[in-house]
Structure formats: C-alpha cells, structure tokens
Amino acid sequence: MKLALIGGGNIGRFLLQSINIDCLIPNAKIIGLHTRCQEQAKELSREFEAEIFEDVESLLKSDADLVIEAATVEAVEEYAASILLSGKDLVVSSVGALADREFYKCLEEICILNNTKIHLPSGAIGGLDVLKAAKSIGELDSVSITGSLLRHFLVPRLMGKRCFLRDLPPKPLDYSQRISMFPLSCLSRD
User: Fold this and answer.
1) Which one, of 97, 89, 106, 120, lies nearest residue 187 by Cα?
2) Which domains are assigned to the chain?
C-alpha cells in the first residue's frame, strides 16, 4: 500500500520510522510527504527515502492509496475535503477538527458520494500518539492521564450508531468506564 503523509513533526517522523524503516505495516510505504517546513521535508525525505510534495495538489496527483494527516486541526480543515474528493482515504490524527458538526457532516457526505473513508487511529484519542512517540525514543518513564467527555459531547458523535445512551449517568465518566459501556463494535458502521 502506498501512503502519503501530511506533517513532518515528531509524529510524522515516528510514522516514517515505523512504516518505512521498521516495516510495522507489511507491504506499506510512505512514498511522500507534505509539510510547511521545507528544511524538515528535505531532511525527512533523505532519511526515509520519501518524495517531497511541494503542495497538496501534487500529493493528490500521486499514486498514494491513503493519506495520513499528522499535522494540525487546521491542516484537516484545509485539506480533508480535497483529499476525500480525490478518491483517497484519509487517516485523521487531529480529531479535534471533527468537533465542528457542519464540517463533520460535510466530510461524511463527501465520503458517501465518493466511496472514501476517514480512519481515526486509537492514538488520536487523548494524545496517545504523542506518548507513543516519546516512549519510542526513550524519553518517557511513566504517564498519568485524566480525561472525560461530557454527555452533550458524546451523544452527537454516536448519532446513528447502534448504541443506547439512556443509561449514561449525567456526570462525566473516566475512560475505563466509557470503554466498557461503549465497546468499539458499537462504533462500527456495519
């Protein structure tokens, strides 16, 4: 599978190392990357043997099967629609961009009309991707995470899914409770 990457920071470097060097995903390679910083792009291109896409249009014209966003919420807002309209699937790590209900609906409609998909990696939730990257370079000894989602935030995200929210208590739950209440299978569109 041919992959393209948007973003050249720590997460982008981690993905290039994991996919292109460590072969974490068999038969997959990040063939090219787009990032705002051309110096960073040149360094990553040399180190990981990936083409530099000067702009997103050249990325869209490439033979990449899937685009990985490892940049910012603003990058998702700017590029997601054109990526999906081009017929390429998209992995979104800056999931905060999908909190905008109108933007989410627009992308959902594009996916339906173009038979494309948006993938949300588990690392995109709660900054776990950043923690994995820090651990991989030996900069992490221990971590403590506290987080919660309020009912009014969770309900719109699960609309149309086969989940029942009537038993959800009005106060925030910790993630371990939420995971046991909403197994991943209930988030599936199947």
Assistant:
1) 120
2) 2-136 (3.40.50.720), 151-187 (no CATH)
